[in-house]
Specification:
By secondary structure, this protein is α/β, with parallel strands linked by helices. The protein has a domain at 34-227 and 249-281 and 349-356: Rossmann fold (3-Layer(aba) Sandwich), CATH 3.40.50. Helices cover 44% and strands 9% of the residues. It is built from 15 helices and 7 strands.
Amino acid sequence: MNTKLNSFLFLHPLVIMILSLQYSYAHMNNTISAVFVFGDSTVDPGNNNYLPTIARGNFPPYGRDFDNHMATGRFSNGRLVTDFVAEFVGVKKNLPPYLDPSLTIEDLMSGVSFASAGAGFDDLTSQISSALTQSQQLDLFKEYKAKLEVAIGKERTEDLVGRAGYLVSSGTNDFTFNYYGPLRIRQSSYPTISEYQKYQWQLIEQFLQELMDLGAKKIGVVGIPPMGCLPAIITLNAKKPITGRKCIESYNSLSRNVNGMLQNNLKSLQRPGTKIMYADIYNPIIDMVQQKAKYGFEQVHKGCCGTGLIEADFGCNPSSPLCDDVLKYVFWDAFHPTEKGYHIIFNSVKSVIQMYLE
């Protein structure tokens, strides 16, 4: 954005008055004032475009089914779950990345994503991919609040923040890239997976406490997917990675354990006037894999882009071959669902979203 225009937006009294009136009018018509998102590549709409990392999806064929066939940085052929959520609650069609320098105050007021591809609750996980750590994402949210206070005042900012919906989707990379990754870095500090799970929960708890201290009152915490069904995990762990492809049960069992612990422990964080809800993505993905005909899928163990066995980020690029019909695939690349897959996940968590509106 032009620097002079940016200063005008922040300082001109008429603009501030107009924004304030628009904000007040919006509150008469919407229960959710805005949507804010924290997490990893499954909810990153392009923040990594502005970071020194190779974990990006801002080039074709990513985004080929998005508006204007634009590769925005979303790790899919189209929209993400968070885009469908933002549209469902009536704040905007697509949720932008906070780091996009072209965003106006009006864009910011209806919500943004602070998520970063490659991130985890464990800072070490984020550092492996040069992604934003969870604490850095919170710092950006603090910066966001400061910007809004200049534009619409502290009282209205606190009201907007308090009425907003929050989604936190992270944790998978802590296991796939960190604990069980090629270097298995955290295993020296946490010899057993149960020890690492407890450590991860401490980090989740700290993050959520800080988020609530910043004013969040309606928080949805997304569980982790069946990791053993991710095409890349199958490729790296199957006895016959090409011909004998099936979900790796040991990883799926870990996912169920992590999600069970998450569901139980979230209950202890409830505060008066605050809702913290668990959003299940394990079961809808398992259902897509096991009941593929019900959804019109034909391929559930390979991604559409490249060989579909291990490609993601720069591995899925303009030179990569693509499947003939993306609507028949659960996964777009070897880690991330297609837009159709994301929409099915969104439909499965609508009941959680609806609780925000009560």
